[in-house]
Amino acid sequence: MSLERRTLPSTLSASVPTKYQPNAVMPDVKVLKIGGQSIQDRGRAALFPILDEIVEARRLGIQVVVLSGGGTRARHIYSIASELEMPTGVLASLGKYIPMQNARMLQMLLAKHGGIYILPDDFEKLPLYLQMGCIPVMSGMPPFGYWEKREEGSRIPPHRTDAGVFLSAEFLGCKRALFIKDEDGLHTDDPKKNPSAPLIPRITAKELTAKNLPDVVIERMVVEYLPRAQWCKELQIVNGLKPGQVLAALKGEDVGTIITAT
Amino acid sequence: MTKLVSGDGRTHIESRLMRESLQDRAVLTGTDSDRDIHIFPDATMISIGGQSIFDRGKAAILPMVDEIAAIKKANPKIKLLIGVGGGTRVRHTTSIALDLGLPVGGIAQLVGAMEELNAILLNALLAPHGSMPMQRDHFWDLPLYFDAGITPIAISVPPFHFWEPPPAHGHEPEHGSDFGMFQMANVLSMKSLIFVKDEDGLYDSDPKRNPAAKKLGTHLKLEHLLNNLPAELPIDLAVFQSWKDSKNLERIQIINGLVPGQLTAALRGEDVGTVITKGEKS
Fold first, then answer.
1. Do A144 and B158 touch (CB under 8 A)?
2. Coil/strand/helix, residue B183
3. Is B92 in contact with A8 (Cβ distance < 8 A)?
4. For position A12, what pLDDT does the model report?
5. Does A78 contact B17 at a Cβ distance shorter than 8 Å?
6. Both ends of chain B: CA-CA distance in Å?
7. Which helix (H) or strand (E) holds B192?
8. B155 to chain A: nearest residue by CA?
9. What average pLDDT does this structure show over B198-205?
10. Are A135 and A62 in contact (CB under 8 A)?
11. What is the Cα–Cα distance from A202 to A215, expressed in whole angstroms?
């Protein structure tokens, strides 16, 4: 019996290819997030006009994949779990359930327009769904769960639904990820607490990181990953409470704030 | 009593995080403390190497299985969780996928299947001695497994899949089976994580290629290791980087699975191979 390692030579295995030539999986898809606390916790008054614009975009032939956020129920369970000193991985697992509820609500509302609920592993079926004119809806929470890393000085999972939206767009090879919130975009401070904080229409990830803001409208992990992205090099944040913004963004217009990789 | 709060157009549930931005550093700090609850503090995670053990075939695998069987026989209530690496098939998959230009999330989705093959082999060999495959995150079944003398064999590759973040360097996933097993040991606050490899611990270079390679020591502090990283490590760097920011796991041990008795000694708490610790106690 030989103790030798049995390796698998391949014509490629001698050296990792020096030039990586990435292939975009579905570059024409628009990945869009409907905010939890910012939109869905407001109920029909905020949500229905946004869904109308998504349906209109789909009617125009734009391929849209809708991802959901968490919101106040996520904050409630994170708050209780933090008091109990649960590890971050447990919080991330708890954090999966609320975006799942929100995605199912969105699916029920979009069903008559082709809304279908998909699971993380269903990306491989997207070509069919989109060619059929469907609007796939899924949870924005990445599936890391118990494998979520802890961030220094916090118990809250650093990858939440913004990260899931960005990572989905990056995997699919989309140029831009779209975030529908209840603010006009990125401000120098939380505009709900400081209404005079000015809007930033366009900024690079590096500039944003250098500002070292005490609070930002989008998860910090996403800003950290953006410069490393192969495909998703822009994040667009629009105000879903303003009629027309979602449709304009889905048509590719530069409304709201755009955060760029470089 | 919990109440629903409205008035700003949104409906909130009253909680400490109500209305708060979860990006606000002050809010985040308020959720933290210097400890986590300890869920399985007397359990040990064992990682069996893909290239180092399984790719060597029967001559390396069977003695390892015999040793685990003997350990379980001598101590039927020992709380072990086992995971395996994927070895050369993972490298082959990655090399083809990179040539095809597949995205990092696509590569991450592919590789786990190769570790699964080794897990099936291990289960087939260890089942007569009491082992079972554990579903992805069925951690809450563990008390039952432990009580029944069953050793669960976990899925070692973490479920990052299509959502593998863009890596800091290169185009390969950063979160492989080493990281997955580390994370399970850490989130469940196990007492130790043992990597079964084919060298007597950590060296400043690969002793298989460099006979003059020097062992880094029997005891290492994580901080010292991170400040003096060797050019090549037999364990993914993501493990040590994540360990730095984690609270629970105190001990990682790297041992030689080709030397009979090292795993038994490591499980007795003996300092074979290289022991890396984090806190004040060494």
1. yes
2. helix
3. yes
4. 59
5. yes
6. 47
7. strand B192-197
8. A147
9. 95
10. no
11. 17
Domains of chain A with bracketed CATH: 30-69+105-143+158-260 (3.40.1160.10)
Which residues of B fall within a CB distance of 8 Å from A20? 98, 101, 171
Report how far apart, in Å, the C-alpha atoms of A38 and of each of A68, A72, A94, B155, B228 are. 11, 10, 20, 37, 46
Cβ within 8 Å, pair B11-A43:
yes
- CB B232, CB B205: distance < 8 Å: yes
- pLDDT beyond 80 at A208: yes
Chosen for mutation from B2, B11, B31, B100 (greatest number of chain A CBs closer than 10 Å) is B31
ipTM of model: 0.90
CB contact under 8 A, B187 and A90: yes
Q: Which of A185-189, B69-73, B164-168, B180-184 has the lowest mean pLDDT?
A: A185-189
Phi and psi angles of residue B115, each rounded to the nearest 5 degrees, phi first: -65, -35
**For residues A18 and A20, what is the distance between their CA atoms, to the nearest angstrom?**
6
Strand segments (E) across A54-112: 64-68
The closest of B258, B253, B185 to B217, measured between CA atoms, is B253
Sheet holding A257-260, edge to edge: A115-117, A135-139, A64-68, A30-34, A176-181, A234-239, A257-260, A202-204
Closest partner CB to A154 (pick from B9, B15, B31): B31
The CA R_g of chain A, rounded to the nearest whole Å, is: 20
DSSP B236-270: -HHHHHHHHT-SS--EEEEEETTSTTHHHHHHTT-
Which pLDDT score is estimated for B281?
43
What pLDDT shows up at residue A201? Answer: 94
Long-range contacts of A194-203 (CB under 8 A, 24+ apart): A199/A257, A200/A257, A201/A256, A201/A257, A201/A258, A202/A254, A202/A257, A202/A258, A202/A259, A202/A260, A203/A257, A203/A258, A203/A259, A203/A260
pLDDT, tens only, A49-96:
999 999 999 999 999 999 999 999 999 999 999 999 999 999 999 999
Domains and CATH numbers, chain B: 1-30 (no CATH), 39-277 (3.40.1160.10)
pTM, whole model, 2 decimals?
Answer: 0.93
Classify residue B166 by its DSSP letter: P
3-class state of residue A83 by DSSP: helix
A205-208: Cβ within 8 A, 24+ apart: A205/A259, A205/A260, A205/A261, A205/A262, A206/A262, A208/A259
CB atoms within 10 A of CB B245: 13
